[in-house]
Design goal:
Two copies of one chain form a homodimer.
Chain A (H helix, E strand, L loop, with lengths): L1 E6 L2 E6 L7 H4 L5 E6 H6 L1 H4 L3 E5 L8 H13 L7 E6 L1 H13 L5 E6 L2 H7 L7 E3 L2 E5 L7 E3 L10 H18 L1 H9 L2 H6 L1 H21 L14 H10 L4 H19 L5 H10 L10 H8 L5 E2 L2 E9 L2 E8 H13 L1
Parallel strand pairs in A: 2-9, 3-4, 3-5, 5-6, 6-9
Antiparallel strand pairs in A: 1-2, 7-8, 10-11, 11-12
Helix pairs in contact in A: 5-6, 6-7, 6-10, 7-8, 7-12, 11-12, 11-14, 12-13
Chain lengths: 341, 341
């Protein structure tokens, strides 16, 4: 089931409900390198078969330049040239790394993704943002460059650990908060256990989220405005994620909780409790104690800063996110107030 | 004197015959970082004044990832955000590094160049190709992304060492060979000493070369065809450049000499002697002995390889370059024949 999506200077084919084995119809096996991590490789060995494969150590701590160097060395060993393809098979760390290397190796090869986690399916693999962390700064280096295809195989989720389901749900809840009130309701009415049992419901939810994010990206590929909404929960989230080595979804969930409180103060938002309830229902942390001063030092370097203000994402109501420019000073004192109270 | 040039998804303003001091009219001083090397910094201290400046060690051996890491760390120290500018002030190494970092830092900042060498003025700063070397492989990692402006100040050439004048002339002669027979004649009729004395002639020559390269790039920004012509002399040149630590122009000059001989065999080219004479007149080496086997191992990884053949640039006649696909095996034996005979 192919859906072709157009971006400003590229198009991407989305294959929903498709077996990962169909990869061989999309790329030439002899001129393709799959990039994955040890976990995914161990769980889906049949999928990798005799494809050229680069297997990385799993985890966000490897989303760094040293790993990029290692991938490039292996591409040279394969004698990969510009006619080759790179396909990332994995979660968000793998899609971020793969997209980035595909953008810079020989000034750019074609690439595609087979996302294997909820997070990668509904978020990381979509929209062309890629990159690596630099020290404590998340995604400080990277590109915006669209993959040629995304191949969605729900069966790959069978081996996903519970913690990764929870991690991915943070982005689903984020999408509902900023853009889709009916989906928020659907999340309130269901549970993670139900989603894991009901394959049709799950496929539908993933597709709905993939297309929601796609629509936002299409409207603003290079993040001049609208696309910033997708950073709901991420400004503070990114700051504390690497500080405390938190799962991405946990960090974003804490970030969304704080953003709800900021919204209550700045936009008159009144539904914080419903958001917190849904986050907790899907196993996510909400209220947390952290070192505000240290977080602030990282947060002020966020890519959404513009001079002395931060473009912060707030909610008017569930389903309606907005971008608000908050002076750095005011933002700092509000954060101190919420986190220490 | 501003000339606006359009590329596929960006435009670049060329300021010919303009004082470098006019930079302050183009970018906001408080949100700009200049990137340069110790030589350029020492020779043009007044130009840098109180601008935020990153000063790098000079030389091709620093066109590597470690330097990119160092630049990124310094941009973080400046708290540079997406609203900042990066301006490369220097030769080809500086423009390659600066363009690359500007492309990946925070997924892309605006950038411009003030080229300070002949090579950078007529070649490296034009067309958006940037990148770094990986081990023995030249420019193996990089992007194609256009600068917003190029500022040409001929007076900056005053401090350019003789060896760098010679280096740059290799690219001028290359342009003449592939595209501009009248310019080739002009080069035959003049000398480097004359060019250095006659500022008007020099300015005219630089402009002619900058616009020649620009036209080729505009026709084929992402190097599907025509733009490959600019690699005349570079396929072999790049292979031997890092092997023997040669100046870029020397390596390309040797590469052009070999390409003329290949052309004689494959296209019936009859003007090798005239090309060799001009190269030598401008101080460039032509015939050289090198380790063909070792060069071949590097050459076969060239970005212009497509499967089992190499897109090699040959001449039909002076002023008319062509792209010819040569099977790797045949190319290897021809190279062995020419270099060892």
């Amino acid at each position: 089931m192919k859906t072709r999506v157009s971006f400003s200077n590229a198009s991407c084919d989305y294959y929903f409900d498709t077996s990962a084995r169909r990869l061989e119809e999309l790329v030439p096996r002899a001129k393709t390198v799959l990039v994955t991590d040890e976990h995914v490789f161990a769980h889906h060995q049949a999928l990798f078969g005799d494809w050229n494969t680069i297997v990385l150590k799993p985890g966000e701590q490897y989303k760094v330049q040293e790993t990029v160097n290692a991938i490039i060395d292996q591409l040279l060993d394969f004698e990969a040239d510009r006619s080759w393809w790179i396909v990332g098979v994995g979660g968000g760390v793998i899609t971020d790394l793969t997209g980035y290397v595909a953008g810079i190796y020989m000034r750019g090869l074609q690439f595609g993704f087979i996302p294997t986690s909820i997070l990668a399916m509904v978020d990381a693999s979509i929209g062309g943002k890629n990159g690596i962390d630099v020290g404590i700064y998340k995604n400080m280096v990277g590109l915006i460059r669209q993959p040629s295809f995304l191949l969605y195989d729900i069966d790959l989720l069978k081996s996903l650990p519970e913690s990764e389901w929870i991690n991915g749900m943070a982005e689903v809840i984020k999408h509902a908060c900023i853009k889709d009130a009916p989906m928020f309701k659907l999340l309130e009415e269901n549970t993670l256990a139900k989603l894991k049992r009901d394959k049709a419901l799950l496929a539908q939810l993933i597709r709905r989220n993939a297309l929601l994010k796609t629509k936002v990206v299409q409207a603003d590929e290079f993040e001049q405005g609208e696309r910033k909404l997708l950073n709901f929960g991420h400004t503070l989230g990114h700051a504390i994620e690497n500080m405390y080595d938190l799962p991405h979804g946990h960090a974003v969930s804490i970030g969304m909780t704080v953003a709800c409180h900021l919204s209550a103060r700045l936009t008159g938002f009144t539904q914080t409790e419903r958001v917190v309830d849904v986050l907790e229902k899907y196993g996510l942390p909400t209220y947390a104690v952290f070192d505000v001063d240290k977080a602030w030092d990282i947060l002020k370097m966020d890519k959404k800063r513009a001079a002395d203000a931060m473009n912060y994402i707030l909610l008017n109501k569930i389903g309606q996110g907005i971008i608000q420019s908050i002076p750095l000073e005011g933002l700092q004192s509000l954060l101190i107030e919420f986190v220490t109270s």
